[in-house]
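We were asked to recover a plausible sequence for a given structure. The inputs and outputs are reproduced exactly as logged, with field labels preserved.

PROBLEM: sequence recovery
POSITIONS: 740
GIVEN STRUCTURE:
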């Protein structure tokens, strides 16, 4: 066992070094092939959906290529092959890092079995094979850009291929099946050796694309005749015009050049020396590895601040989509004559305590700042209720769009800081009137946002309570069992049943009986009619609370039917909504399109919440839109559409360096509420490119001649038509063209 462990340690050490060096070599290939850097652009989205190791690889490559003029940011169609080849680096190399960490964590526990060690080593073997195949693709890509005679032949002598990698993996799998872990480790070590050789060849070929001709010429300088000397000078002169490498990659290239220039020999000897330099068994390798790590760890890009987990920044394109969405939502809310309300970002802790059931553990508590215990608001409903109670209001229709905070585990579509868009109606009204209106508003908002297909699941808390009582659930367990039932949209009934029985103490018979009810789902009017006349209905109609709920739903469904929005509603007895304060109708909207985002809106009636603040009860009902998830859908739809980050109507383009000219013209436009921006530049094409890239429809172009003659050039960016207008009619001519 000790020899097996020592062999695993060597593989761990060598693979760890490979995961660092291979990224540096991939960065060299990026420059050798003029790779599209957008393929390597990966940032932490804040919701835990991107692997940390993938982000780490992306960050390392950015550090190495910082300042490079060779690797480009482009979206041209002819970059697609290149982009696909390099975009795989992040995941494949990130997977190797993850596999190395996993093996390392097992090795640290000495008592681990050979079987456990073997499993981790074999997993690493698969990831190494993938890395090797990716690197081999770039070796061939680099070779295609090299005109040095004989280099391809030297490479082919090493017989490196995808087949050699696959065979190595096959031998390792066979050894693992035979439980021969000593042989397994030896086979994986052989695969690791092949991958090292491939990565070394990637470095060789990338280097020769970037600097190889210069190195060969310098080594041959003075050995040829006068003509050869002239060729060397011409080559050197040509090389002086080369563009800059990245700060990290240029340092690595200089290290390699210094090493190769200190040795003699022709092409083949240079390659052998190069491969030796990247051999982990070489005495000089540790120096190379140390330098690469220093570049990655000391570069200023490493010290760029990050956002906290579960939060994110929004770029200009995202902000354009968000602004549009908030505008649409506000318009719907104001159509229903609601008043806007704003409340503090934090509340007294006692205000929030006991309102959210099992989710209370997700409240963000703040440090004591002088006698008051405060917490960040968890939602907008409890602050609304506190406001109504504090001000003695008996009726209030309001909307509120703002941020809330939850100490949740970030996952795809789930953040710790996010916006909610709430609409609530408090006060005494005709029975089920406010309930109908908030469901209608949720439907209106989702239709207006044009996200695609969705459904609104609807139930009644009293009906659910009646079901639980009929099934034999003790009243003290109603809320905690509701929390379990609320998970049915994410888990199977068997999983929920296990939780109800093993964790919450229900009998199997009770859980099964609950199952017969919560599986009932269908069109509202049809299903309600079926329940009222069926076997389940006879039990529910004998129960006062559930009978009251069914009567409420009858009124609600009839109103929704007449309002022409019932086609989006589904009567679903499994809907529970885990929050403690719900007392009547509850509903939840779910997106039915391709993007998996979960709930996109929810709400319900909460008649007792305001009274909990020590005042008289004010019955209330409300809805909250899951705007972050809706925005995810909208961003997905907008990927193939042109999104304007600004609403600029006119670009005032001044050729030269006269700011005063630009200031005078653009101020005239601002004064009449025309959305305008200005640019001052000596090259008119730079100004036109800015207008095109920013999708600005009109340009005013003015240079020295235009100033002297009292004219302006007005350009339509879409049609490219250009006409001359009098300087005095700037505003008039633009208003004429901008008016609908």
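RECOVERED SEQUENCE:
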């Amino acid at each position: 066992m000790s020899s097996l462990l020592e062999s695993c340690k060597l593989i761990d050490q060598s693979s760890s070094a490979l995961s660092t060096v291979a990224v540096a070599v991939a960065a060299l290939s990026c420059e050798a092939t003029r790779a599209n850097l957008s393929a390597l652009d990966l940032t932490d989205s804040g919701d835990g959906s991107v692997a940390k190791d993938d982000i780490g690889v992306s960050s390392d490559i950015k550090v190495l290529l910082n300042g490079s003029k060779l690797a480009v940011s482009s979206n041209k169609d002819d970059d697609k092959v290149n982009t696909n080849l390099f975009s795989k680096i992040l995941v494949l190399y990130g997977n190797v890092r993850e596999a190395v960490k996993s093996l390392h964590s097992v090795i640290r526990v000495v008592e681990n079995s050979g079987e456990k060690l073997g499993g981790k080593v074999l997993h690493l073997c698969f990831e190494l094979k993938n890395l090797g195949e990716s690197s081999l693709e770039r070796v061939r890509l680099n070779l295609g850009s090299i005109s040095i005679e004989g280099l391809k032949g030297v490479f082919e002598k090493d017989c490196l291929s995808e087949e050699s990698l696959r065979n190595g993996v096959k031998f390792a799998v066979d050894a693992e099946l035979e439980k021969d872990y000593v042989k397994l480790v030896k086979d994986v070590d052989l695969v690791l050796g092949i991958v090292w050789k491939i990565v070394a060849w990637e470095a060789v070929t990338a280097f020769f694309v970037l600097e190889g001709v210069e190195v060969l010429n310098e080594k041959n300088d003075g050995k040829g005749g006068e003509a050869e000397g002239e060729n060397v000078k011409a080559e050197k002169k040509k090389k002086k015009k080369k563009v800059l490498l990245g700060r990290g990659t240029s340092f690595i290239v200089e290290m390699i050049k210094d090493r190769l220039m200190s040795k003699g020999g022709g092409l083949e000897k240079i390659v052998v020396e190069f491969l030796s330099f990247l051999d982990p068994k070489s005495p000089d390798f540790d120096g190379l590895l140390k330098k690469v790590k220093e570049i990655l760890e000391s570069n200023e890009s490493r010290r760029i601040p990050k956002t906290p987990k579960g939060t994110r920044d929004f770029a200009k394109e995202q902000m354009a989509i968000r602004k549009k969405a908030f505008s649409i939502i506000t318009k719907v809310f104001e159509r229903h004559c609601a008043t806007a309300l704003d409340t503090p970002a934090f509340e007294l802790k006692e205000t929030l305590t006991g309102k959210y059931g099992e989710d209370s553990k997700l409240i963000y508590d703040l440090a004591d700042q002088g006698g008051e215990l405060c917490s960040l608001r968890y939602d907008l409903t409890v602050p609304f209720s506190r406001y109504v109670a504090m001000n003695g209001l008996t009726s209030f229709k309001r909307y509120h769009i703002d941020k809330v905070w939850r100490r949740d585990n970030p996952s795809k579509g789930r953040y710790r800081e996010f916006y909610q868009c709430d609409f609530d109606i408090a006060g005494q009204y005709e029975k089920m009137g406010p309930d109908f209106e908030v469901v209608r508003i949720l439907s209106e908002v989702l239709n207006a946002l044009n996200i695609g297909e969705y459904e609104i699941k609807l139930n009644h808390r009293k009906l659910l309570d009646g079901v639980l009582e009929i099934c034999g659930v003790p009243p003290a367990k109603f809320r905690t069992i509701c929390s379990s039932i609320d998970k049915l949209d994410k888990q199977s009934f068997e999983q929920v049943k296990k939780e109800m029985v093993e964790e919450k103490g229900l009998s199997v018979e009770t859980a099964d009986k609950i199952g017969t009810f919560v599986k009932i789902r269908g069109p509202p009017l049809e299903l309600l009619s079926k329940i009222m006349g069926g076997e389940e209905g006879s039990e529910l109609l004998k129960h006062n609370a559930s009978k009251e709920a069914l009567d409420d739903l009858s009124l609600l469904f009839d109103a929704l039917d007449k309002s022409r929005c019932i086609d989006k509603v589904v009567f679903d007895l499994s809907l529970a909504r885990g929050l403690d304060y719900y007392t009547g109708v509850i509903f939840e909207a779910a997106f039915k399109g391709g993007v998996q985002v979960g709930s996109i809106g929810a709400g319900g009636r909460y008649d007792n919440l305001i009274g909990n603040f020590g005042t008289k009860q004010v019955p209330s009902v409300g809805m909250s839109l899951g705007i972050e998830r809706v925005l995810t859908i909208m961003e997905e739809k907008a990927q193939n559409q042109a999104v304007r980050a600004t609403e600029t109507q006119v670009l005032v383009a001044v050729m030269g360096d006269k700011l005063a000219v630009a200031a005078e013209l653009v101020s005239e436009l601002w004064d009449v509420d025309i959305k305008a921006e200005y640019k001052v530049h000596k090259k008119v094409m730079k100004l036109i490119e800015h207008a095109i890239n920013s999708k600005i429809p009109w340009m005013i172009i003015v240079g020295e001649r235009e100033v002297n003659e009292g004219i302006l050039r007005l350009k339509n960016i879409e049609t490219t038509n250009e006409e001359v207008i009098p300087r005095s009619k700037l505003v008039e001519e633009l208003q004429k063209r901008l008016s609908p």
